[in-house]
Write a structure and sequence with these properties.
mainly alpha, 59% helix, elongated
Length: 215
C-alpha cells in the first residue's frame, strides 16, 4: 500500500509539477481572509474581489473598523457573503485580542470564524507547516484514487495523514487540488488527460461507457 501511495504521489507530481496555492496575498492575514472567501467560490473570483478589497482593508484593525454592511457589499460576489463577512470580522477581532497573528494550526483554530480547513491552508501555505486541508477537490480525488475510503472531510484528512509521511502532506494537498480542479472534475472528469486511471475507481466503473456520463 505504501508503494502504491508513493507511486500515485509521484504521478500527481509529474502531472502537476507547478501545483501551488492560487490565491493572491501579500501577508498571512491576507491569505487568511482570502481562504475564508474561497469557500464554495473559485480562486479566480476571490482574487478579483481581494484585489479591490485589500486596497481599502488589509489588516485586522481595518476590518474591525469597516461597517459590516460595507464588507458584505465588497465580498458579495464570492457568495455566502453574510457568513463570510461575519467570519472575517470575528477573526479580525480575535487577532486584535491576541495581539498577534497566530502561526500554528492550533492557534489559528482558536480564532473565531476559523475552522480546521482554513487553519490548515494558512498554516501550510503562509507558515510552511505540514497539513492537509480537505476541500471538495481533495475529498473527491483522494476517494476516487483509493487513497482513502472516507465519508467525511475529517476522515479523509485523517486517512491521508496516515497514508503519507508528514513531510509530504502539504505538497499532496496542492497536487490533489490541481488534479481535481483541472483533470478529475466532479462531472465529466477528463480521463483522457489523466495518468492515474489504473488506480481510479471512477474510471474502472465507467471505462468503456459514454465519456460524458456523470455520477
Amino acid at each position: 500500500m505504501l508503494s502504491r501511495n508513493r507511486e500515485i504521489f509521484d504521478l500527481l507530481a509529474q502531472k502537476h509539477g507547478d501545483a501551488h496555492c492560487e490565491l493572491n496575498y501579500d501577508t498571512p492575514f491576507e491569505l487568511l481572509v482570502a481562504v475564508v472567501l474561497s469557500a464554495q467560490c473559485t480562486d479566480k473570483r476571490v482574487n478579483a474581489v481581494t484585489e479591490e478589497l485589500f486596497k481599502v482593508a488589509d489588516t485586522p484593525e481595518a476590518f474591525v473598523a469597516m461597517p459590516l454592511d460595507e464588507l458584505e457589499k465588497r465580498i458579495y460576489s464570492c457568495g455566502f457573503y453574510r457568513n463570510k463577512a461575519k467570519a472575517i470580522k470575528e477573526l479580525s477581532a480575535s487577532i486584535l485580542e491576541l495581539g498577534e497573528m497566530p502561526s500554528t494550526r492550533e492557534g489559528l483554530m482558536r480564532l473565531r470564524g476559523v475552522g480546521r480547513k482554513t487553519a490548515n491552508v494558512v498554516y501550510a501555505v503562509a507558515f510552511g507547516g505540514n497539513a492537509i486541508a480537505v476541500d471538495t477537490h481533495v475529498f473527491r480525488v483522494a476517494n476516487r484514487l483509493g487513497l482513502v475510503n472516507a465519508a467525511t472531510p475529517e476522515l479523509t484528512e485523517q486517512g491521508l495523514m496516515e497514508a503519507f509521511d508528514e513531510d509530504m502532506w502539504s505538497r499532496l494537498h496542492h497536487l490533489l487540488i490541481f488534479q481535481g480542479r483541472y483533470v478529475c472534475h466532479s462531472r465529466q472528469p477528463d480521463c483522457a488527460q489523466c495518468n492515474l486511471t489504473k488506480y481510479c475507481a471512477y474510471y474502472s466503473a465507467h471505462a468503456g461507457k459514454d465519456e460524458h456520463e456523470t455520477v
